[in-house]
Amino acid sequence: MSDRSPTPEEATRSLRELSRWQQHVTGTPPPRWLYLLVVAALPVAGAARDLWPQHSAEHALVAPAVVLAYLYLPRFSRVGSALGYRVMPGRRPPRGSLLGRRYAVLAAALVVYVLGEYLVHQLRPAYPNTIVDGAVALVIAGSAWWTYPSRTAPEPARDDA
Amino acid sequence: MTTPDPTAVPAPQESPGATSLDQALLDPTRFSIVSLLAPARWTEFGFVRDALGMSDSALSKQVTTLGRLGYVDVDKGYVGKRPRTWLWLNDQGRAALRGHVAALEQIAQQAAAQGARYPNPPRE
Q1: What is the structure's pLDDT at A32?
Q2: Average pLDDT score over chain A
Q3: Does residue A121 carry a pLDDT above 80?
């Protein structure tokens, strides 16, 4: 290895390479089955609250507990691998567009939740919690393709780029 | 005249984190590996291997080099009955990458500034 400085072109290419690999990692989606399980947990928790209202306080804890487990358990290498993760989510949240997309999905889920609560309060349908939690789950599930668009490895930077 | 040892471990920077090029990271493969490890906590060896299209042995050599420099921690274990290896870019490695990237940005910006001083002549 020679002690030399890269040319401006080499420096630019390296920076481009860094950005692409980091996007590849942050764009790697969570295991699909786990994602679907978490999404399915929401309407199930809602249905449980509707069917057994006397235990609604306990059932209300299910969804947050599942979401917390989903967020924190993959941070440990063995647990994360056992759950199907190949990359354990980073210490810092991803920057740029991906983070913006996640916030947009959360905001959309919150809007649907508030709107849903208002509508079921007005219309009083059967199984109101199932309907609202199901709608939120649909928003989160439907946004998966948009939140994680990068599913393939980027082309490495070519020398003649 | 002596022939350089291709397996020699390059010396780490004395003050990682400063705006200085890290000779170890000038190697494109090593730079790609740390770029992949940087945004994550632990990364499976197989993920890095597949993403970079490397063989197990080639990646293992580079990881050993990065480990000797103190940039990457390696954890070996089992998930069920399957052996797994996880890689972690530790704080020293992250500091080295930050300094290296800052130096690369400086080089690119200086070149851009110099280029701006010499605009293209008008075309006829």
Answers
A1: 77
A2: 77
A3: yes
Which of A141-150's residues contact partners 24+ apart within 8 Å by CB, and which partners?
A141/A35, A141/A36, A141/A39, A143/A101, A143/A105, A143/A108, A144/A29, A144/A35, A146/A101, A146/A105, A147/A29, A147/A98, A147/A101, A147/A102, A147/A105, A148/A27, A148/A28, A148/A29, A149/A27, A150/A23, A150/A24, A150/A27, A150/A28
- CATH number (3.40.50.1980, 1.10.8.1310, 3.90.550.10, 1.10.10.10) of B23-115 reads 1.10.10.10
Residue B107 is predicted with a pLDDT of 92
Report how many domains make up chain A.
1
Check A86 against B47: CB less than 8 A apart: yes
Q: A119 CA to chain B: closest CA distance, Å?
A: 41
Mutation for testing the B interface, residue in A9, A77, A83, A99 having most B CBs under 10 Å: A77
Answering whether pTM is above 0.80, one says: no
Which residues constitute the domain of residue A119? 30-147
